[in-house]
Write a structure and sequence with these properties.
It contains seven helices and eleven strands. It has about 230 residues and is an alpha/beta fold. It has one domain (about 15-225): 3-Layer(aba) Sandwich (Rossmann fold), CATH 3.40.50. The protein is about 35% helix and about 25% strand. It binds glycinamide ribonucleotide (GAR). Glycinamide ribonucleotide binds next to helix 2, strand 6 and helix 7. Glycinamide ribonucleotide binds near residues 23, 101, 121, 122 and 187.
Amino acid sequence: MVKSQTTEAINGPKTRAVVLISGGGSNLQAFIDQITVGNLELDISLVISNVATAHGLERAKLAGIKQTCIDHTQYVNRSEFDQALMTRIDQEEPNLIILAGFMRILTSEFVNHYANRLVNIHPSLLPKFTGINTHQRAIDAGEQWHGASIHFVIPELDAGPVILQGRLPVLPKDTAEQLQQRIHKIEHQLYPLAIKWFSQGRLEVRGDKVLLDGEISEHQLQTFDL
Ligand code: GAR
C-alpha cells in the first residue's frame, strides 16, 4: 500500500508539482483557476512543454508560473529526452508530476523513477480506448458512454491504477469534435479534484486499485449529463 502523501503534509507544505504539457493547456488552466479561487492547495513550480509553440506555456507565463520547453526533436532518442526531462524536473524536487496533455510516450525508466507520484489524464473510460482518436473510436464502436480517466502512470501505455473517471452519454448525432469538447469540460472538473485528493493525502495505491479515504469510493466514477 502506498499513500500519496504523509498525513503531516495535509497541514504542512503544499504539494509541489511539475506539469508536463504539449498543447493548449486547458487542463493546466483548470488547475490555475482552482488554485486562484482557493479550491486547490498546489504549488505548480514549473511547467514543461516539449513543443515550443504550446499555448499552455503562455497560460503559465500569464499566471506567473515558471515555464520552459524541452524539445524532444533535439534529442537522439527517447531515452536521452527522458533523461533531460528527469534532470530538469528533479531540480524542482517535486512530490507530484502531472501529465496534462503531454503527448510523448515515456520510458519505463522515467515512469519508475516517479512511481506513485506521476499522474495522467486520458480521454476515455480506461481500459477502453487506449492510444489516440479515442472519441471517434468510441462513436464507431457504438458506445453508450464515453469519458476521461485520471490514473497513476505505469510503464504500460494508458494503464495504471485509476484515481477518478467521469463519463457522459454519447449522443446519437455526436461528431468526434463535439464529443471531445464535452469531455474536455468534464476533464476540467475532474483533474483538479483528483489532484486535490492527492494533495490532501487521501489516496492510496493498493495493487491495481486506488483507494480514496481507505476504500473504493463511488466518488471515483462520476456521471455527467452534458
Ligand atoms: C486532454 O483532452 C487530455 O485528456 C488528452 O489531451 C488533451 C489535452 O488538452 N490527453 C491525452 O490524450 C493523453 N493520452 P489540454 O492541452 O487542453 O489540457
